């Protein structure tokens, strides 16, 4: 392949002797980049590629890129003697996983795209369509930090905040497919405005993107990353301390509500903010314990699969289609 935006890495680059499909193709589509990989049935990622999403070209161009990229990788795998058994796609926005339709993506701009039909016809293999966060929850449930839990919440704190309610390893979507929108729990009524139309939503305080943006605004500096704010904590920066402490306190309130409503035995925290490690997890556990009264609090753990969770989950969902 000649696309300069694409990279190949990992094992499996040579021709394999086996002709029986032992991999599923997985793609995780984000606003900046598309992660792709070959995933074994037991969840091992044996090869990866990346390609820029380039959303500025418009939604149809992005849809074409997804389809073209997947088709190229299916052809490459077959040419190397390792044909894929199925393909899985983790997509952003509102996804109807039963029908395979991308209902809406505010980031990319598509509406009512029949990804399942489109990609199934293009690739000629079984195709699974999943939501990016819920696919990550599936991966954490089967091969990551959710192993052994019958009821946990997957909570990635990234550009925004998504979430998945995982019961017996399966996302619980609710009758309308909308379960898990933790980022829009109102934790500060009348607080910061949110793009959803409400005020005081969790995502406006505790997402990695929110921490970075709020610091930049308050300090009058160019926007950097949330981990840059963490670095400034160690330097005694009072603005960083105020914004970080509020992010932790708001998140503790949201998790207390989660404990009261869902009674999970574990909360798996991922996304960019989780990379802060103990700087996040220790005060968060302390704040949650201080706020609790009758609550039975969940175990708080960091995600194990990092930014590959969505890709791995897409591959595992694809394998679910293969007998």
**What is the name of the CATH class of the largest domain?**
Alpha Beta
Q: What's the pLDDT, averaged over the residues?
A: 91
CATH 4th-level superfamily of the largest domain: ATPase, nucleotide binding domain
Q: Report the portion of residues in β strands.
A: 15-25%
CATH architectural grouping of the largest domain: 2-Layer Sandwich
CATH topology name of the largest domain:
Nucleotidyltransferase, domain 5
Shape type: globular
Going across the biggest sheet, name each strand in turn. Answer: 1-4-3-2-5-9
Task: Write a structural description.
The protein is of the alpha/beta class and 323 residues long. The chain folds into two domains: 7-131 and 308-319, Nucleotidyltransferase, domain 5 (2-Layer Sandwich); 145-303, ATPase, nucleotide binding domain (Nucleotidyltransferase, domain 5), CATH 3.30.420. Helices cover 36% and strands 21% of the residues. The chain contains nine helices and 14 strands. It has helices spanning 59-79, 115-123, 132-143, 203-206, 208-219, 226-234, 238-262, 278-291, 309-319, and strands spanning 7-9, 23-29, 33-39, 45-52, 84-91, 94-96, 101-104, 111-113, 127-131, 151-156, 164-167, 170-171, 266-270, 299-302. Strands 1-4-3-2-5-9 form a six-stranded mixed beta sheet, with helices on both faces. Strands 12-11-10-13-14 form a five-stranded mixed beta sheet, with helices on one face. Strands 6-7-8 form a three-stranded antiparallel beta sheet. Helix 1 (59-79) runs parallel beside helix 2 (115-123), helix 5 (208-219) packs across helix 6 (226-234) and helix 5 runs antiparallel to helix 7. The chain is globular.
């Amino acid at each position: 392949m000649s696309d300069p935006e694409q990279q190949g890495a990992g094992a499996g680059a040579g021709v394999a002797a086996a002709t029986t499909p032992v991999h599923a193709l997985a793609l995780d589509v984000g606003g900046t980049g598309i992660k792709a990989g070959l995933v074994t049935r037991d969840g091992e990622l044996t090869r990866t590629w990346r390609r820029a999403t380039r959303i500025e070209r418009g939604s149809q161009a992005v849809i074409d890129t997804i389809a073209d990229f997947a088709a190229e990788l299916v052809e490459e795998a077959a040419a190397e003697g390792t044909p894929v058994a199925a393909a899985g796609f983790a997509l952003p926005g509102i996804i109807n996983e039963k029908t395979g339709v991308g209902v809406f993506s505010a980031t990319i701009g598509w509406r009512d795209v029949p990804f399942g039909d489109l990609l199934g016809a293009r690739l000629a293999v079984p195709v699974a369509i999943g939501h990016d966060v819920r696919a990550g929850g599936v991966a954490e449930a089967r091969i990551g930090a959710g192993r052994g839990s019958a009821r946990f919440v997957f909570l990635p704190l990234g550009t925004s905040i998504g979430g998945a309610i995982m019961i017996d390893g399966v996302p619980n979507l609710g009758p309308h497919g909308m379960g898990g929108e933790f980022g829009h729990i109102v934790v500060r009524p009348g607080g910061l405005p949110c793009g959803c139309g409400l005020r005081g939503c969790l995502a406006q305080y505790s997402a990695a993107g929110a921490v970075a943006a709020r610091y930049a605004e308050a300090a009058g500096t160019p926007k950097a990353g949330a981990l840059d704010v963490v670095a400034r904590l160690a330097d005694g920066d009072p603005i960083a301390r105020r914004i970080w402490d509020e992010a932790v306190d708001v998140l503790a309130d949201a998790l207390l509500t989660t404990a009261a409503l869902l009674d999970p035995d574990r909360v798996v925290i991922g996304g960019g903010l989780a990379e802060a490690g103990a700087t996040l997890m220790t005060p968060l556990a302390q704040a949650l314990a201080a706020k609790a009264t009758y609550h039975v609090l969940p175990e708080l753990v960091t995600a194990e699969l990092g930014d590959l969770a969505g890709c791995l989950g897409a591959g595992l969902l694809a394998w679910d289609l293969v007998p």
